[in-house]
Specification:
The structure holds two protein chains of two kinds.
Chain A (H helix, E strand, L loop, with lengths): L4 H45 L5 H6 L3 H12 E7 L5 E2 L3 H6 L4 H6 L7 E7 L5 E10 L4 E8 L6 E8 L13 H4 L8 E2 L2 E2 L3 E3 L11 E3 L5 H17 L1 H7 L3
Parallel strand pairs in A: 9-10
Antiparallel strand pairs in A: 1-2, 1-3, 3-4, 4-5, 5-6, 7-8
Chain B lengths: L3 H8 L15 H6 L4 H25 L8 H23 L1 H7 L1 H4 L5 H9 L6 H31 L1 E2 L2 E2 L3 H5 L11 H18 L6
Antiparallel strand pairs in B: 1-2
Helix pairs in contact in B: 1-8, 3-4, 3-5, 3-7, 3-8, 4-5, 7-8
The chains are: A alpha+beta, B mainly alpha.
Chain lengths: 247, 206
């Protein structure tokens, strides 16, 4: 059968329109569900940094997202944005959570325009923790995390990290509890100035050093990326930390 | 409906014409997503759905498709199906969809899908084409699940996220084989499966 150009063009147009309509309908109808999944993921990461997220219990819950939201509302008592001088911006509760969607852009802004989110949690024992998000570049793609600080705003209480596409078994180990629990008890400040957390080569090499953790062997670039991410992102919070906690 | 000829379309890809072990198609994703069983299973299911419905839809359209833009039409249909699958995964099994990351999108380039459309769907009626799609998806998925099981068991000591190798083994010096989690070991495992498969099917050897 010989097909005319008109037939071919008509066929393509109809096909593309039909496909476009189907895809838009599906995206519209599933959109809210996907949004709530992404929101719940951020909440569970924030809770995880202070050890208040129990993945097993969440998986057993009838509605996982609702379970996470309930816990988030129970334990995260405050959230707000701070400016580059470390001043808290009034009425920024909603904006703080929303700003997690464009952290990368926010950290890249000139200092004076930066507005960084802080989350405050209070656990069952009444201990207050400050949770700060961090965002950086790993070997293959973005890495991110949340660092929870004790109320002196110096000692790390917990950390969680995530990544988009680090090498499984090597760089991807930053997302494992084994790597993350090393951060507990380390301090960000030394002799009154901001040091951050360094990574040192070799298992056990960071023992006794309160500003360092063991790097992941075979995951050097990702480990260094974590070090740089903490230095830069938490460094941007320095005015806030100095103002409210560290002497 | 389920005549002997149709059943062959379903069962052949599981053995004698398996897309991975015999036709050596779809290797890339087979290496990438099989470090754990659960993502391997979800990937297998996704590919089966895409091949089955791509075959069905294109077989229904086969008489009207302008031959000059044939490949483009196939791509549009396959791409649309893949986006659908991706959206559904993001909405209902978000954790798994994160682990599969780009590989769901890359189903579009999976040679099995385009291969079956070109080789079978465009020349056959919708029902056999649909069965052929399911058969090939399952043939691909079967290898993925085997790989996922072996790699997760030896690489992490778990199956479907549940610990099966008891802690006491570790206390006595057993340790997980980290190499299992890396793609080169997956390729070696595929090689071993192909070896076993051919040694049982002499007629596959050259």
């Amino acid at each position: 059968m010989k097909q005319t150009n008109a037939y071919i063009i008509g066929y393509s147009i109809v096909l593309v329109v039909v496909v476009a309509v189907v895809l838009s309908l599906v995206t519209l109808s599933l959109g809210p569900r996907q949004q709530s999944n992404m929101q719940a993921e951020k909440m569970s990461d924030i809770l995880g940094s202070v050890g208040l997220y129990d993945a097993e219990a969440a998986n057993k819950a009838k509605d996982k997202n609702q379970y996470i939201i309930d816990r988030y509302e129970k334990y995260i008592t405050e959230s707000f944005l701070v400016d580059s001088k470390g001043n808290r911006i009034p009425d920024s509760e909603q904006a703080a959570f929303a700003s997690l969607d464009n952290l990368k852009a926010e950290f890249a802004k000139p200092e004076a325009e930066r507005r960084l989110p802080v989350f405050v949690s209070r656990n069952d024992a009444g201990q207050v923790r400050y949770i700060l998000p961090v965002y950086g570049t790993g070997l293959w793609g973005p890495i991110w995390g949340y660092i929870a600080l004790q109320s002196n705003l110096d000692t790390i209480d917990g950390a969680v990290f995530g990544h988009k596409s680090e090498t499984p078994g090597l760089g991807a180990e930053i997302a494992t509890p084994a790597f993350q629990k090393q951060f507990v008890g380390k301090t960000l400040f030394g002799n009154g100035s901001f040091v951050g957390i360094n990574v040192t080569k070799g298992v056990g090499s960071s023992a006794g050093n309160s500003h360092a953790v063991d790097a992941i062997s075979g995951g050097t670039i990702t480990s260094r990326a974590v070090q740089a991410m903490i230095k830069e992102c938490i460094g941007d919070y320095e005015p806030f930390l100095v103002k409210n906690g560290v002497k | 409906m389920f005549s002997a000829k149709n059943m062959k379309l379903l069962t052949n890809p599981l053995g004698a014409s398996n897309p991975i072990t015999v036709q050596i198609l779809g290797i890339c994703s087979a290496l990438a997503v099989t470090a754990k069983l659960q993502p391997a299973f979800v990937m297998a299911l996704s590919v089966t759905v895409v091949t089955a419905f791509a075959n069905l839809i294109l077989s229904l359209l086969r008489k009207g498709i302008p031959s000059r833009i044939r490949i483009i039409v196939q791509l549009v249909v396959v791409a649309a199906l893949v986006i659908l699958v991706d959206q559904v995964l993001k909405a209902f099994v978000y954790d798994v969809s994160k682990q599969l990351s780009v590989f769901v999108g890359l189903i579009i380039t999976n040679c099995i899908v385009m291969g079956r459309i070109e080789a079978f769907a465009l020349g056959n009626k919708p029902w056999p084409a649909f069965l052929d799609g399911i058969g090939n998806g399952l043939g691909y998925g079967m290898i993925l699940v085997i790989l996922g099981f072996v790699r997760e068991l030896l690489g992490a000591g778990t199956v479907w996220g549940y610990r099966v190798i008891p802690e006491s083994f570790y206390a006595h010096g057993y340790s997980n084989n980290g190499l299992m989690l890396l793609p080169p070991m997956a390729l070696i495992c595929v090689g071993i499966i192909i070896w076993i498969h051919r040694s049982h099917n002499r007629n596959l050897c050259e």
